Amino acid sequence: MIRVVVTDDIEDIRDYFRMIIDREQDMEVVGVASNGEEAMRIAREARPHIMLMDIEMESEFAGIHAIEEIKRTMPEIKVIVLTIHAEDDVMFKAYGAGAMDFIVKTSSIADIINSIRNAHNNSLYMRPEIAEKILGEFTKLHNEKNSLIYTLNIVSKLTNSEFEIVRAIYNGLTYKNIAKERSVEEVTIRTQVNKILKKFNQGNMKEVVASLRELKIFEIYSR
Q1: Residue 99: which of 117, 86, 81 has the closest Cα?
Q2: What does the buried/exposed string (b/e) look like for 145-172 if buried means 16 or more CB atoms within 10 Å of the residue's CB?
């Protein structure tokens, strides 16, 4: 007999899943929970084979936190995520926490029952380390986007003179070369460089140039 716990903050959904699961001869609902904390407590008490876990309950990622704790303390329990919309970032987080599968709440009864049976039989399983790699790539892309926007915002706030100095250093010119080109004293260039470093919140121009080069700023930004 496949022992199942249903976790969802909406009572009607809990009742619906209990009804369709209890109709199956090889399954039984051994507990229901309305939030992540309750889910963890019932998991410890009932020791189900399968937990159906909603994500957004008492907090936005309550279900994710519950999955992490359950897999840490009771790794034998298999978790299937209940969701309305299978959004990539949420699914990546769920798989990374240790979920085996996800069920869209509007799925057919046959799909729901098959998912539970397949999870119980280990017929479908994305290893957490694989999901972690996927999540890592997603996070990397997200961070790169934010970093690009952050850097462009700083560049847009440079004065014309500061921008040209940054571009000159980016192209390999020394402070002495820049001062000569601009017909000013080298100390003037160094003073402007210090202002530039404060705007970028960096310790030296080598770090600034490395960041600009990595993000290809001068390929996508022009004045």
Answers
A1: 81
A2: eeebeebeebbeebeeebbbbbbbbeee
Cβ atoms 101, 79 nearer than 8 A: no
Residue 63 and residue 90: Cα distance in Å, rounded? 10
Distance (Å, whole) CA 19 – CA 12: 10
Whole-number pLDDT of residue 13? 93
Closest CA to 20 of 8, 34, 6, 10: 6
Indicate the burial class of 76 (C-beta count within 10 angstroms; 0-12, 13-18, 19 or more).
Answer: exposed
As a whole number of angstroms, the longest Cα–Cα distance in the chain is 89
**Which two structure tokens, joined as six digits, stand for 77?**
């329990």
DSSP annotation of 60 reads T
- pLDDT at position 86 over 50: yes
Three-state DSSP class for 74? coil
pLDDT digits (tens, 9 = 90+) for 117-134: 989 988 765 555 555 666
Phi and psi torsions of 126, nearest 5°: -100, 115
Distance CA 63, CA 52 (A): 10
Number of neighbouring beta carbons within 10 Å of residue 83: 21
| pLDDT value of position 183 | 92
pLDDT of residue 141: 63
Length of the chain as a residue count? 223
Q: Are strands 78-83 and 2-7 parallel, antiparallel or unpaired?
A: unpaired
